[in-house]
Design a protein that fits this description.
Aspartate Aminotransferase, domain 1; Aspartate Aminotransferase, domain 2; 7-stranded mixed beta sheet; 14% strand; globular; disordered N terminus; binds ligand T4K
Length: 395
């Protein structure tokens, strides 16, 4: 039953459901909430007049300052995207050999930046509730080659930062958080991006907060921010001094302008997503086999994603069958994060990638489904999606 790929309700019932609930337009897992075009145009005029397109321009400066203020942290370095920010985070801490412990339940970028820094990823199992690294599984993976831990706040849910920090302190390891999903999240009333040594945000177009492409690296000291800023600009400290093997990770003025406009909209975006999340929770509360992500205490959430787990036996249909059937209704969900990074051909030979070491991650990757959630999604559409998910349940 759990491997069933077909919708378990009869075809005639499914066709009737489709006639009633099929959405007129495709609804994707996410859409960016666009700022007013006139306002972006005003920024374009400023850029045109200044002829300053990139390399630490005025808008970049303003965005970095206002972003730090909004996020409640002191040291923000803007990047062209989150992946390069992660790559530079490792270089900033001089981690470019050995092993780093990370989660397999993440976007490929997390594991790939390790590989690109010549580091062996060591995959560690996850916690069933938070879907983040399970601290209880970390310690036995630490060996003489271990340099750092790279946890991910998956779907914006904070990792167990206290437990992870105490393991890192005991073993003298760095902690670099992939906080790509955690824009604006607070834990015990502090920004989650303060945790660990460094944190990386992503501002990709699919993210809660976007600068088209973009990202930021959050550091703790003046000296570290300077090193990061040099590293993202080829290592240049001044016109004639290169402090190290840097890269081009700079954010340009067009991205910064877009980011500045997003800052004016982000609180409304989060508030609307919160409302939609509540509607989903209500609408799916009684659905057998649809397990909604549990709230974690002391967290001010950002409502970046709405993941559910489909229990094929209870729901009567597998996650994959539901994913396929929803398309007939014009509902385009995503299986974030399936397959696991440990299942990619480039990593399967690693001993830590063995499925027997990752039972929770393996199980979650087979049942997780992210339903559409974004600021311009309307409440009726969420009600319809719930009605379809309920209607397709075989029990
Ligand atoms: N670490 C983690 C944990 C991450 O999740 C990510 C990125 C990173 C690191 C790396 O950060 P960046 O280097 O990307 O800054 C998307 C994003 O490309 C990726 O940024 C993101 N995670 C990941 C979770 O999602 P795809 O392959 O699912 O994107 P795509 O093109 O299929 O888009 C999904 C849906 O979004 C589309 O069906 C429609 C909508 N969309 C997309 C784009 C690009 C739009 O409406 N407009 C758009 O411009 O990866």
């Amino acid at each position: 039953m759990s491997e069933a790929r077909e919708s378990a309700i009869p075809n005639s019932e499914r066709a009737a459901l489709c006639r009633r609930y099929r959405l007129p337009e495709p609804v994707r897992v996410t859409r960016p909430t666009m700022p007013p075009l006139e306002k972006y145009h005003e920024y374009l005029e400023t850029i045109w007049a200044s002829k300053w397109l990139t390399n630490n321009g005025k808008l970049h400066e303003e965005f970095e300052r206002r972003l730090a203020q909004y996020l409640g942290v002191e040291y923000v370095s803007l990047f062209c995207n989150g992946t390069i920010a992660l790559l530079v985070a490792l270089q900033a801490r001089r981690i470019n050999e050995g092993e780093v412990i990370t989660t397999p339940f993440t976007f490929p970028a997390t594991a790939h930046v390790l590989y690109w820094n010549r580091i062996r990823p060591v995959f560690c199992d996850i916690d069933e509730t938070t879907l983040n690294l399970n601290p209880a599984c970390i310690e036995h993976l630490i060996g003489p080659e271990t340099k750092a831990i790279m946890p991910v706040h998956v779907f914006g849910t904070p990792c167990d930062i206290e437990a992870i920090q105490s393991i890192a302190d005991r073993h003298g390891l760095d902690v670099i958080y992939d906080a790509a999903h955690a824009f604006g999240v607070r834990y015990k009333n502090r920004p989650i991006i303060e945790a660990g040594d460094l944190s990386v945000l992503s501002f990709h177009a699919t993210k809660l907060f976007t600068s088209i492409e973009g990202g930021a690296l959050i550091s703790k000291t003046d000296a570290e921010k300077s090193r990061i800023d040099f590293l993202k600009n080829f290592g240049f400290a001044d016109e004639e001094t290169v402090i190290g093997p840097g890269i081009n990770g700079k954010m340009n003025e067009f991205q910064a302008a877009y980011g500045l406009l997003q800052l004016d909209m982000i609180d409304d975006e989060i508030a609307h997503r919160r409302k939609l999340t509540e509607l989903y929770r209500e609408g799916l509360a009684q659905t057998p086999g649809i397990k909604v992500h549990q709230e974690v205490p002391d967290v001010q959430r950002n409502y970046a994603y709405f993941p559910v787990c489909v229990d094929a036996d209870e729901y009567g249909t597998s996650r994959d069958a539901l994913y396929d059937t929803l398309k007939e209704f014009n509902i385009f969900t995503r299986k974030y994060f399936y397959p696991l990074c440990s299942q990619f051909p480039c990593y399967t030979a690693l001993p830590s990638a063995d499925a027997r070491n990752l039972p929770v991650a393996e199980r979650v990757a087979k049942c997780v489904l992210c339903l559409p959630l974004y600021g311009t999604l309307n409440e009726d559409t969420v009600r319809t999606i719930c009605a379809v998910v309920n209607g397709l349940c075989a029990h």
